[in-house]
Design brief:
- By secondary structure, the chain is of the alpha+beta class.
- Helices cover 52% and strands 8% of the residues.
- Helix 1 links the parallel strand 1 and strand 2.
- It is globular and about 45 Å long.
Length: 197
């Protein structure tokens, strides 16, 4: 099973993180993003969207980190990471949506502007971060984990860009419950870091 990967990408990292926590072996294939390797064959044939990560598991080829997390959890991990029971599964999936929307367009986008020079509306990214971080902090005020009473792929999906928020000029000083959750994720057996974390 191969993961086409960019070390500084939080979306790639969430897959590497989950695989490490769940003991799922991956062959990491580093992609030369700056040289546009992801936009040329053979990668563009695997993912016509020209984005990373891309997971190849035999005949299965997946793009999108949230989809990859779901696949790995259901195919290779125990039920604790993504339960089959409908209410518990929905509790996890709603956080995958948060990672792909509010977190992606808030703290992640702010980081893209500051760290990588993307031409995005920085003020808008900061407004979005200012909305989502208090909601996450409030959830974590009386829950150790985002979705259930244990770590799930919800935590893996949200963790990277929230933990990296300071790289986009988004301070976490006012969010003690987020900071405590980041420490809990870091303390999980099998945790692996990424640049900036």
């Amino acid at each position: 099973m191969k993961l086409y990967d960019l070390a500084h990408s939080g979306n790639c990292y969430k897959v590497r993180l989950f695989a490490a926590l769940a003991g799922i072996p991956l062959e990491i294939v580093a992609v030369d993003f700056l040289a546009g390797e992801h936009k040329r064959a053979p990668l563009i044939e695997l993912n016509p969207w020209g984005e990373l990560p891309v997971l190849v598991d035999g005949e299965v080829v997946l793009r999108d980190s949230q989809a990859i997390l779901v696949y790995l959890a259901r195919r290779y991990a125990d039920d604790a990471w993504l339960p089959a029971e409908p209410a518990a599964m929905a509790a996890v999936v709603q956080w995958l949506s948060t990672a792909a929307n509010e977190v992606q367009n808030g703290p992640c986008a702010a980081r893209l502007v500051d760290k990588f020079g993307y031409a995005l509306d920085k003020a808008d990214t900061l407004r979005r971060a200012a909305r989502i971080l208090p909601l996450i902090d409030a959830r974590l005020a009386d829950h150790d984990w985002l979705a259930l009473d244990r770590p799930t792929i919800a935590d893996c999906a949200v963790f990277p860009y929230v933990a990296l928020a300071p790289e986009g000029g988004v301070a976490l000083d006012d969010f003690p419950h987020i900071r405590a959750w980041i420490a809990r994720v870091r303390a999980l057996p099998g945790f692996v870091p990424m640049p900036g974390l």
